[in-house]
Each structure stands twice: as C-alpha cells, then as structure tokens.
Amino acid sequence: MMPIMKKSLFFITLLLLVVSNKLMAQWPAPFNTILTSIQDSITKKVLASPKTYRYQLVYTQIDRDQKDIPHFTNHTLYADADSYFNPASMVKMPLAFLAMEKLHELNNPGVNKFTSMQFDSNYQRQVAMYEDASAQNKKPSIAHFIKRAFLISENDPYNRLYQFMGQGPTNQQLLAKGYSSTKITRQFMGYTEDQNRHTNGINFVDEKGLPILKLAPQYNKDSFQFGAPIFIGDAHWNSRDEVVNAPFDFTRHNNISLTDMQKMLQSVIFPASVPKQNRFNIAESDRLFLLQYLSQYPSETNYPKYDSAHFYDSYVKFFFQDSTHAMPKHIRVFNKVGWAYGFLTDVSYVLDTKNNIDYMLSATVYVNSDGVVNDSKYDEATVGFPFLNQIGKAFYQYELQRARKFKPILKNQVKQYEKRNPKDTRPSILNADN
Predict the structure, then answer these.
(1) β partners of residue 346
(2) Quick check: 83 and 56 in contact, CB under 8 A?
(3) How far apart are CA 218 and CA 172, in angstroms?
(4) CB neighbours (10 Å) of residue 410?
(5) Which residues pair with 347 in a beta bridge?
(6) Topology classification of domain 21-401
(7) Is 47 helix (H, G, I), strand (E, B) or coil?
(8) What's the angle, vertex CA 378, arms to CA 373 and CA 382, rounded to 5?
(9) What does the alpha-carbon distance between residue 98 and residue 282 come to, in Å, rounded to a whole number?
(10) How much of the chain is in helix, strand and coil states, percent to nearest 5?
(11) Which helix (H) or strand (E) holds 258?
(12) pTM for the model
C-alpha cells in the first residue's frame, strides 16, 4: 500500500504544480516576474489558490521626471471592489483623515488636534470619556487618538473618531470624494445598527476644563444600499457564543476596496498626484502629523509609552514583519494594517532613502482553514503573516533592481521623529484592545 500512496501523493503534487504554473503564466506583468521569484512553499501555496485565500494585490511604481515630479503606474492582481474582504482596522485611516479635515473646516481658533475633549453618554450603551491615561496631559484629543490608532492600531480611538465625525457625514464625505466602495457603518463596540447610527455629544475644553466648543449628539437618518448578500465560511460563532452551521453574514459590515484605501493613502502622502476631488482638506501641519504617525515606531514614542518588546517596530508593518521584529534604519513604511475574521490587510507606501526607491504596495489575504468564522482560530501566524512578509520582500527586491530613467534623491517628508526618553520610569503599556 505504501508505494501506491507515495505515487498518489506524487501525482497530486505534480497536478498542483501544473495548475500553479498555468495560473502564474496568466498573471500580468510585473506580477508574473515578481511573484514567481518567491520560493517560500507557504506563499506559493497561497498564490496558487486565489479563490481559497481571497488575496488581492495593488502595486504602484513611482517614477520621477526631469523636474522631480512623481508619476504613478498602478498594477493590480485580483483587486476587485466586488470581491469582499473585511477591512477591520483599515477603517481607522479614513476616519483619521476625515477628523483632521473636520477640525480644519471648523475653523475655530481655540480648537485644534491637541485640544482636550470630553465625550458624553447620550444614548443606549454609549460610554462617556473624560480622561486618557496614556496621554501626557491625561486628556483625550484628536491627536492622541490618531497616535493610538496608527502606532499599534488600538480600537477605542477609532470609536472616538467615529463619534466625532458621525456615521452620516463619514459616508457622505467619502462618497463625495470619489471613494464609492466605502461603507463605514459600525464602531468596534458590539453595537446594534441603531446604536451605531447614534454618536455621542462632544465638548472641546481649555486647559482649565472650561468649554470652548460643544458638538451635539448626531443621528444618521440615511439608508445604506448594501447590494448583494456577502456570506463567507462554512460555519460561525454568533453573538451568544453559539456555533451556527451556516456562513457568516458580512453584508452590513464595514467595507472599503483595496484600490480606494491605497488612493486615500496616496492622497495624503502625495496630494498633488490625485484629482482634487479625492483629496482631504487639511492643513499642511496636520498632513505632516499624519505622515509622522503612519510611519513612527512604538519604540520611538513617549506618549503612549508602549512596551517595545511586545509592540515591536514591525508590529504593524506586515510587509517587513519577520522574526527579527526590527526595521531597517534607512526604510520608513507609511501604512495602515487591519486584521480580523481571518482577513489580513496592509496598505503601504515604502520609502528607502539609502537606495533611493519608493513605491506603494497593498495586499489582503484570507487565512481560515477550518472555515469557521468568528472563532478566533485563524492561520495568521502560520500562513497570513509569512505570506505578507514574503510578498513584501519580493516587491522590495524587485524595486531595488528596477531601472529608472531619472534616479531621484529621496527625502522623508517627516523631518524628525520622536525619541523615547531613556530616563522615563513610567510603566510601559503591555496590553491594548486592538
């Protein structure tokens, strides 16, 4: 029996190899060159099964002309707005951009990103907030929410940005900017649809706690057009911790396409490179603040003071996340990641000021081999993270070798990053809801 089994395994492996090679031969350039260079067996297995792993890739080459003006060439593989993936924490990025825009357009001289805020409780299950222990002044602010949302992808800052914006204005403004795939319908609070339509009243206060600006609670009366039902998986755990032998319904969950997310990021890093409609109306100082915390590391940051052993530098840099947990000194990654329900996503701009290369790379992958959704048992460590790391390495190596007609001398728009104070004896943050 053993020789027969060995022969069967051989022919199955051979068949998979033939199917994989046929699939790769159909990939458009430059994916056919870049992805076939990967030798890692896990990554090759994922690449050979796009339907199982639901992966999507967007790769943008950046070339400068004689006047040093960047030009962008987009390449996509299986990137389809109708092919759903759960964006998870990716929704924190547009909320941060919109919050900066709202502050700018409020045009109140006493209110900026550092102004202290108070959140009231005005509806069922809403949670008031008057303090933030991780901030230097112990007070909530838009600036501190953005730090926490970007540095290690904390969840509550997203909820607070959502409450500041309101459900209706968030979706109306993203649609008006041309991001038509986007629906941001829920906070990370386990709320009902009705509760997500209501957001807290907010007060901006001065250093003495005296009111500067009061924002009333909001309620979204708009309806959503969700389109065709989205069912994923073979079974799922429901909110009552019961196993249901049916797919999980993502129809009314948050949704953003990979191409829209990458364009949002590009619009903040290179505003002039996208149509005016797609841009966020923010002050230059606020734009540079966003860039700093999209690319700063937890180990560099004083407030919040994250434990740098647990929240290491590549913690939310999936394309560079390997066993060393370190980041090359000459590379900065401006990005946002998301992970939930077995979906892993990274939308990145990579800047290498030593080799003078920069490019954009976005990817999402679904790793849930048991087919049960919401059971917290996913193949992130064994498949998802290794896949994204291998993808990241392959595109980086390709960019190192890619010929450019005009080789640029690249500089980081962020002039200076923070440095952790070595004399600070405060305890580090070891746990965070992200």
Answers:
(1) 337, 363
(2) yes
(3) 14
(4) 17
(5) 336, 362
(6) Beta-lactamase (3.40.710)
(7) helix
(8) 160
(9) 9
(10) 35, 20, 45
(11) helix 258-269
(12) 0.94
The phi and psi torsions of 7 (rounded to 5 degrees) equal -65, -40
Residue 117 parent element (H or E):
strand 116-119
- Own/partner contacts of 292-296, CB < 8 Å, gap of 24 or more, are 292/414, 292/417, 293/146, 293/147, 293/150, 293/151, 294/150, 294/265, 294/334, 294/335, 294/336, 295/332, 295/333, 295/334, 295/335, 295/351, 295/414, 295/417, 296/150, 296/151, 296/414, 296/417, 296/418
CB within 8 Å of 346: residues ≥ 6 apart: 317, 318, 319, 335, 336, 337, 361, 362, 363, 364, 388, 392
Strand 231-232 and strand 248-249: pairing? antiparallel
Residue 183 DSSP label: B
Angstrom distances, CA of residue 407 to CA of 72, 266, 354, 402:
15, 21, 12, 11
**CB-based contact 381:388 (threshold 8 Å):** no
How far is CA 401 from its chain centroid? 28
Q: How far apart are CA 145 and CA 243, in angstroms?
A: 35
CA nearest neighbour of 122 among 65, 197, 46: 197
> Residues 141, 216: contact at Cβ < 8 Å?
no
CA gap 219, 197 in Å, rounded: 5
Domain boundaries, the chain: 21-401
Instruction: Give dist(CA 382, CA 146) in Å, integer.
Output: 30
Integer Cα distance of 331 and 361 in angstroms = 14
Distance CA 62, CA 286 (A): 24
333: Cα within 13 Å, side-chain hemisphere: 25
Residues 6 or more apart whose CB falls under 8 angstroms from that of 353 comprise 330, 331, 332, 410, 411, 412
Per-residue pLDDT of the chain in tens (434 residues, 90 and over written 9): 545 656 655 555 555 555 556 677 689 999 999 999 999 999 999 999 999 999 999 999 999 999 999 999 999 999 999 999 999 999 999 999 999 999 999 999 999 999 999 999 999 999 999 999 999 999 999 999 999 999 999 999 999 999 999 999 999 999 999 999 999 999 999 999 999 999 999 999 999 999 999 999 999 999 999 989 999 999 999 989 999 999 999 999 999 999 999 999 999 999 999 999 999 999 999 999 999 999 999 999 999 999 999 999 999 999 999 999 999 999 999 999 999 999 999 999 999 999 999 999 999 999 999 999 999 999 999 999 999 999 999 999 999 999 999 999 999 999 999 999 999 999 999 999 99
Amino acid at 217: P
**CB atoms near residue 11 (< 10 Å):** 10
